[in-house]
Task: structure prediction
Amino acid sequence: MDKITTTTFSEQQTQLFAYEVTKKYFKISKNIIFLLEGELGCGKTQFVKGVAKYLKINPKKVHSPTFVYITEYHNRKFIFYHLDFYRLKPEIISEIFNDHIEELWNLLQHTTKKVVSCIEWSQKILDSQIHKFIKWISKENLKDKFAILRINFSIKKNFSRKIVVTKL
Ligand SMILES: Nc1ncnc2c1ncn2[C@@H]1O[C@H](COP(=O)(O)OP(=O)(O)OP(=O)(O)O)[C@@H](O)[C@H]1O
Ligand SMILES: [Mg+2]
Result:
């Protein structure tokens, strides 16, 4: 299992780290799903802004889509989704996650663009559901199509952030 750990001391450093992680995984996979987990204010949205920068999407446009739960951005090369499960009830998250994966899958059949999805508060998705999804990816030989990255944030001393990237 691939793992990268870092500590950042500012939102700019978190964005730069996200930029580099995106660049690295685009070398091995056409599409990326980021599962962003960690408490309120730990830097998930700052990370998403760094991903957006790599995709040449204006990071100023990226906010936690808390009230709409999903926002979508398109440009010449990329299709980018930003989801936030914070306010969603646990009983509907399962269905929303499945629908989103199905939407991504259908999209891949019809687009030559790269697709990226960032899901904040992904810790609310059941582990069993994530495992099922990962199994499906390997069974269907989709590993080169999707990189699934779990990004775990924790707030440390002096407000620094420990960020752990795990490729699932
Ligand atoms: N090293 C750091 N990395 C990221 N953000 C930092 C860092 N140090 C301080 N911050 C500040 O912490 C806050 C992180 O906010 P952000 O919206 O990214 O959190 P979040 O995890 O998305 O929260 P929420 O769960 O409410 O969506 C920002 O105000 C940012 O300026
Ligand atoms: Mg956020």
About this structure: The chain has a mean pLDDT of 94. Residues 44-45, 64, 120 surround magnesium ion (ligand 2) (CB under 6 Å).
